[in-house]
Specification:
four-stranded mixed sheet; alpha+beta; 211 residues; binds glutathione
């Protein structure tokens, strides 16, 4: 079995990277230099035709979409418990949170980071503020969910917590941040303290602020 993760530091590759380290499996890390535009070159777009990071290879089979990669890895390593068992109610909740994070929270984050892809330059600042106004109630939903629990699904860490951590840290330089919400902050601290997370930060060379 060979796994390879195509990544660039501090991107959507982070949750799959964290999960691979949590699982303790062998994998190759292949850096794509986005500064040089390598994510748009012919070799990379053969792997991910969207020209986006990450991509993942498993014995010649290619996946893209960070949430799909995470869920697939959970399925390949059920013994590690990073997703509840298939067919359980908790698995249903796992899908709910994972899909909501990737199709509701993540697009608004992309809108914040790349307003020029959606509106003319003169409207960019206003568009970013609209994204921020949409994002913060979504982080409040996570915060409320965590009011009386340690993890988003069940009673142990799952891939959904890693994904929520990744998307929360994308707010670290915004005027309002996920870490300002106290229950969510506890989750971020808990995930940050894990050896797998520390290793990812070390290897990706991520400096403060951490989230
Ligand atoms: N929905 C995709 C989004 C991936 C994505 O937006 N990747 C960003 C980095 S965080 C990227 O490659 N950006 C380069 C670009 O847009 O040119 C996923 O979750 O895998």
């Amino acid at each position: 079995m060979t796994y390879a993760l195509y990544y660039s530091p501090s991107t959507a590759a982070m949750a799959p990277h964290m999960l691979l380290r949590e699982l303790g499996v062998e994998f190759e890390l292949r850096r794509v230099d986005t500064q040089k535009g390598e994510h748009r070159n012919e070799a990379y777009t053969k792997l991910n035709p969207n020209g986006l990071i990450p991509a993942f290879e498993h014995d010649g089979m290619i996946l893209w979409e960070a949430a799909a990669i995470c869920t697939y890895l959970c399925d390949l390593h059920p013994e590690a418990g990073f997703a509840p068992d298939v067919g359980t109610k908790q698995r249903g909740e796992f899908y709910k949170w994972m899909i909501w994070l990737t199709n509701t929270v993540q697009p608004d984050l992309i809108g914040w980071f790349y307003p020029d892809r959606y509106v003319p330059a003169e409207n960019a600042e206003q568009y970013k503020m609209t994204m921020l106004d949409r994002l913060m109630p979504r982080y409040a939903i996570l915060d409320e969910r965590l009011r009386d629990r340690d993890w988003l699904v069940g009673d142990r860490i799952t891939a959904v917590d890693l994904y929520a951590f990744m998307l929360s840290r994308w707010t670290r330089n915004m005027p309002r941040r996920a870490r300002d919400l106290p229950n969510l902050r506890r989750l971020l601290d808990r995930v940050m303290a894990r050896p797998a997370t520390q290793k990812v930060y070390e290897i990706e060379g991520i400096a403060e602020p951490f989230f």
